[in-house]
């Protein structure tokens, strides 16, 4: 069975505990847009996807696919590179990015220590 969650949240604390307790196969980040003052952008949703994408049981070696839609602002690209990791980017087409987070249950870091460059 495949489990998929779509993140469109303004507050990380607003998610139910059940979201953090499940091992997700696919996570889709698509909002808020960031075009209005009450829509701050996808930064918290990207960070949350990075957290819950790494929740895995020790016996589960399957990666979690994270799809981020509309990564068009510098701050959202930076959050995606920082918390979903540039080395996990497997495909991109325009403003749609696909990351694959591998099982690294021993690591306390989101990404490798390689420096990234924001263009």
TrEMBL record:
<dbReference type="GO" id="GO:0000139">
    <property type="term" value="C:Golgi membrane"/>
</dbReference>
<keyword id="KW-0489">Methyltransferase</keyword>
<protein>
    <submittedName>
        <fullName>Glucuronoxylan 4-O-methyltransferase 2</fullName>
    </submittedName>
</protein>
<dbReference type="GO" id="GO:0032259">
    <property type="term" value="P:methylation"/>
</dbReference>
<dbReference type="GO" id="GO:0045492">
    <property type="term" value="P:xylan biosynthetic process"/>
</dbReference>
<dbReference type="Pfam" id="PF21729">
    <property type="entry name" value="IRX15_IRX15L_GXM"/>
</dbReference>
<keyword id="KW-1133">Transmembrane helix</keyword>
<keyword id="KW-0808">Transferase</keyword>
<keyword id="KW-0812">Transmembrane</keyword>
<dbReference type="InterPro" id="IPR006514">
    <property type="entry name" value="IRX15/GXM/AGM"/>
</dbReference>
<keyword id="KW-0472">Membrane</keyword>
<dbReference type="GO" id="GO:0008168">
    <property type="term" value="F:methyltransferase activity"/>
</dbReference>
């Amino acid at each position: 069975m495949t489990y998929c969650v779509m993140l469109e949240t303004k507050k990380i604390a607003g998610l139910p505990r059940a979201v953090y307790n499940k091992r997700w196969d696919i996570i889709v980040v698509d909002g808020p847009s960031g075009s209005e003052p009450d829509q701050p952008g996808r930064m918290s949703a990207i960070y949350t996807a990075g957290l819950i994408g790494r929740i895995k049981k020790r016996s589960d070696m399957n990666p979690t696919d994270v799809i981020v839609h509309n990564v068009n602002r510098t701050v959202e690209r930076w959050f995606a590179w920082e918390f979903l990791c540039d080395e996990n980017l497997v495909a991109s087409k325009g403003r749609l990015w696909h990351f694959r987070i591998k099982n690294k249950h021993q690591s306390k870091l989101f990404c490798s220590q390689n420096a990234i460059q924001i263009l």
